[in-house]
Amino acid sequence: MAERIHSGIAAARERAEPFCAYVHDTAAIADHARRLRAALPDACTLLYAVKANSRPEVLSALAPVVDGFEISSGGELRKARAADGDARVVFNGPGKSWAAVEEGLRAGVDLFNVESLTDLARLDAVAGRTGTRARVLLRVNTRRPLVTGTHQMVGEATQFGIDEDQLPQVAAAALAAPHIDVEGLHLHSVSNNPDAASHLAFVDRCLALAAELRARHGLPTRVLDIGGGFGVDYSGDGRHFDWDAFARGLHDRSAALTGIELVIEPGRSLVAEHGFYCAEVLDVKHNHGRAFAVLRGGIHQFRLPKVLGADHPFTVVGVDSWPWPVDRTELRDTPVALCGELGTPADVLTRATRVGRLRTGDIVVFPMAGAYGWEISHRDFLSHPHPDFLTT
Ligand SMILES: *Cc1c(COP(=O)(O)O)cnc(C)c1O
């Protein structure tokens, strides 16, 4: 890693530009995914949620290890197919466009989640027009949370899924729709849950809900998609999701899972740990008695610390060469705020973490940046289309 950073710095210096890069260890990502996959029962399907990191090299590293990709837009579909032309693809999301649905059906998307009556009708209409059938999972927004984490998708008032009270109506419409095959339920509920025991309790609640809907509405439940949401340890306090315990719990539930394909689609937990955001220090200074460092980069490239609301860990890679004809400035043994170059006081990556020494020209490296780093920080999140620019 350090070697890659130093060669990156050398290349940047040749252009007289500061160094700023995302570095992904794609071999480590593939190894990690292989380990998680191997722990699961064979009846489980492991998909990768592309939105966590859709860099082509990352998708290519994961393609041979996972069973397919979870996507939410035509853009993500194209990236998934570029990594593996035959990859199994599951299309989710509360706002599917007509164009994206048609692209998905023509490209052989295996499963669509259905988030509303409109979503269902649109899928049925496009499938009819294109002479295909759509295999669907109904996404349920349950009355009460099934599990809790940092972002709650269902079990409360959100834009996600079908309200449990409206489920009889949507289920009946789905079962009657001429170009739709209902395969089961989609229950992605949460993000960044650190607790394997509560995630197993969530699986039990999903199984109970599936049994209830099967009995009450004659809903097929061959496929149960429990989404992602497995937590990672950003603060280093050791509270990481115990995947082996989770996988053992699934093995223990093999009787309850008979006849059900359990789809698991993590994003964050597959890629977070093997990505690094590196940024060169452009200036260090004191204002109002506090120390600041200004970096090449900022929240437009790495918004994750803002979203998590905590000081992100970082390390300093000291760079001894200093080719510029001015004195080099430094901070010593002091808490420092690491800021970006966006010209707004909001552009703060960490507020007060103590550094031993930090000089202009050194590199700050933020670990745990492989998921929702570059992706959530810019206008290409979920690879959705850009707006038009109109004038009057
Ligand atoms: C975002 C998302 C995922 C992945 O979530 P992680 O928290 O990154 O594991 C899986 N499924 C759906 C439907 C999603 O929206």
Q: What is shown here, in short?
A:
The protein is of the alpha/beta class and 392 residues long. The protein contains eleven helices and 18 strands.
Characterise the protein shown here:
There is one protein chain. The mean pLDDT is 94. The chain has two domains: 141 residues, Lyase, Ornithine Decarboxylase, Chain A, domain 1 (Beta Barrel), CATH 2.40.37.10; 172 residues, Alpha-Beta Barrel (TIM Barrel). The chain has 392 residues and is an alpha/beta fold. It is 30% helix and 25% strand. The strands form three sheets. The protein has an eight-stranded parallel beta barrel with strand order 2-3-4-5-6-9-11-12, surrounded by four helices. Strands 1, 13, 14, 15, 16, 17 and 18 form a seven-stranded mixed β-sheet that branches. Strands 7-10 form a two-stranded antiparallel sheet. Helix 9 links the parallel strand 11 and strand 12. Pyridoxal-5'-phosphate binds next to helix 10. This is Orn/DAP/Arg decarboxylase 2 N-terminal domain-containing protein. It comes from Streptomyces eurocidicus (Streptoverticillium eurocidicus). One of its GO terms (biological process) is lysine biosynthetic process via diaminopimelate. Keywords: Pyridoxal phosphate.
